[in-house]
Design a protein that fits this description.
With about 150 residues, the chain is of the alpha+beta class. It contains one helix and seven strands. It folds into two domains: about 30 residues; about 100 residues, Immunoglobulin-like, CATH 2.60.40.790. A four-stranded antiparallel beta sheet has the order 1-2-7-6, with no helix packed on it. A three-stranded antiparallel beta sheet has the order 3-4-5, with no helix packed on it. A hairpin with a 2-residue loop joins strand 6 and strand 7. The N terminus is likely disordered.
Length: about 150
């Protein structure tokens, strides 16, 4: 469908504006580094925090069940992937007036700045928010170095 049709220019301009709004929203909330620019219809928004001994990643996954989510770690990349199913709409003959929610498969990959203790990574899913606690390896944690002062 062309954006510029002579039959209904208002509708076509509306489509163009909707697409531009979606593009800006995707860049603003999901970032350019991973989805939705790799063919995905949507990608969850995330926050990543660094603490002295661990990282905390939080991902918003409303409408997704824990069984539909997979968290994996390879090299320095933590990946969250899964699927958000579209709900069945009562009266399938209904006309859509506005559709802003996105459904389908998703994948977000985050590069972590240091080594982690893979055996102690833990994930919790509560109220549509996935929280992944990622302990740093002993070699990645900051350490203080004691300064010896020779006796004078």
């Amino acid at each position: 469908m062309s954006f510029w049709t002579s039959q209904n220019p208002q509708f076509s301009l509306g489509n163009l504006q909707d697409e531009m709004n979606k593009l800006v929203e995707r860049v603003w909330h999901a970032g350019v580094s991973t989805g939705p620019f790799d063919g995905q219809k949507w990608a969850p928004t995330i926050d990543l925090y660094e603490h002295a001994d661990h990282y905390t990643l939080m991902a918003e996954l409303p409408g997704v069940t824990p069984a539909e989510v997979d968290v994996s770690y390879v090299g320095s990349s933590l990946t969250i992937r899964g699927r958000k199913e579209a709900p069945a709409v009562a009266g399938e003959s209904a006309r859509t007036i506005r559709a802003e929610r996105r459904f389908g498969a998703f994948c977000r990959t985050v590069e972590l700045p240091g080594d982690i203790d893979v055996d102690r990574v833990a994930a919790r899913f509560e109220a549509g928010v996935l929280t992944v606690t990622i302990p740093k390896s002993a070699t990645s944690r900051p350490r203080s170095v004691r300064i010896d002062v020779p006796p004078s």
